UniProtKB/TrEMBL annotation:
The keyword Ion transport does not apply. InterPro entries: PepSY-ass_TM (IPR005625). This is PepSY domain-containing protein. It comes from Novosphingobium lindaniclasticum LE124. Keywords: Membrane, Transmembrane, Transmembrane helix.
Length: 373
């Protein structure tokens, strides 16, 4: 087990440390980005737009006027906080989904003007996000990150097995202060791993599930049930006047009146519907909840509803993956804990490498003929 743990650590340690450090920074992704742009953050102090606010209509009009002639989808975020309205603009592209090329846009609180606009990946926090998600290598990098997450589980398991006490537990968890550097490094590596191993297993497992959704679906299908598919309805007509976002929101609010608005996805002209993302009671994630209302973009008819409360056990379990991974499950205390845990892989890498190098050097000194051969 020690040999397996050693070689897994030497091969995976750098990736594990990188993912941990970038993950720590991303726990407070929004707050750090606001701190890096204080002048823009201070420009507005109006109340957050509600379900019935006309600010959504004005923001869409301002965005389409700014990028006139560029068809694409708009996604407006309802933060629930006073100030600017964050949004994403996805120009028409052969790529689809959340990771398609996009422009990050911030509108004034009343939606009347664009305050800030930057391409995704062009500023620090989005660059760190891409580094964490796919090592800046797109889909191949995401595969590496995902499978590395599963390999890290083996690294942690072998480390725990190699440590498992054969004598007294008191000795196994002790830190010998008066020992030599080699023993102190070993104890520091051991104790850092021991206090963090369970939570690092949670972070690694949830990260792997987020990075590889196809594997996640297969695992949940085998263990619990096939997760519910998110509906993909189409508007009845493919052309005609597109309703305003406020009309779509009014229709969606009637269906889920107890829900909290999270995102308003406005499609380009065509057959795609409006998609209203909602946090219903019991959904653990505030920012990226799992319930949706799909509204016909031409006549405001409800086309489909995805209510996480009516999903099967697999769908319910999937709803907890992100909050466990980003530390938001318990609010500010668990987010701070997630930051600290993200630093542990780097500490384990450094102490493990130093211990291995000192041990190798000591063996070479004791057996010079063997080292030369």
């Amino acid at each position: 087990m020690r040999h397996v743990h050693l070689w897994l650590g030497l091969s995976l340690g750098l990736v594990f440390a990188l993912l941990g450090l970038t993950g720590s920074a991303l726990v407070f992704y929004v707050e750090i980005d606001k701190a890096l742009h204080p002048a823009i953050a201070r420009t507005e102090a109006a109340s957050a737009p509600s379900w019935t606010s006309s600010a959504w209509d004005r923001a869409l009009a301002a965005g389409r006027a700014r990028w006139k002639g560029a068809p694409g989808k708009w996604s407006f975020e309802a933060t629930g906080e006073d100030g600017m309205i964050p949004a994403r603009f996805y120009p028409a592209s052969r790529h689809a989904g959340h990771h398609a090329p996009r422009l990050m846009v911030w509108f004034s609180a009343d939606g009347s003007r664009v305050v800030r606009a930057e391409p995704w990946g062009s500023y620090l926090m989005t660059w760190l996000y891409d580094l964490h998600m796919d090592l800046l290598a797109g889909e191949p990098g995401r595969q590496v990150v995902g499978w590395s997450g599963y390999a890290v589980l083996a690294l942690l398991a072998t480390g725990l097995a190699a440590w498992w006490p054969r004598g007294t537990w008191r000795k196994a968890v002790a830190f010998k202060r008066g020992a030599g550097p080699q023993r102190r490094l070993r104890d520091l590596h051991k104790l850092t791993g021991l206090w963090s191993v369970v939570l690092l297993i949670v972070l690694s497992a949830t990260g792997a599930l987020l990075a590889l959704p196809e594997i996640r679906t297969a695992l949940f299908a085998a263990a619990i049930a096939v997760p519910d598919d998110v509906p993909s309805p189409r508007s009845a007509a493919s052309s005609g006047r597109q309703i305003a976002p406020s009309e779509a929101l009014l229709a969606a609010h009637r269906i889920l009146p107890e829900g909290r608005l999270a995102f308003v996805d406005v499609p380009p002209a065509g057959a795609e519907p409006f998609r209203i993302r909602v946090q219903v009671p019991g959904d653990p994630h505030r920012r990226f909840p799992g319930s949706y209302v799909f509204v016909d973009q031409h006549d405001a008819r409800i086309l489909a509803v995805q209510d996480i409360r009516r999903g099967n056990a697999a769908t319910t379990a999937i709803g907890w993956i992100r909050v466990l991974h980003d530390g938001s499950v318990g609010g500010l205390p668990t987010r701070i804990l997630a930051v600290i845990l993200g630093l542990c892989p780097a500490g384990l890498l450094v102490t493990g490498l130093l211990h291995w190098r000192r041990r190798t050097a000591a063996r070479a000194a004791m057996n010079p003929m063997e080292s030369r051969s």
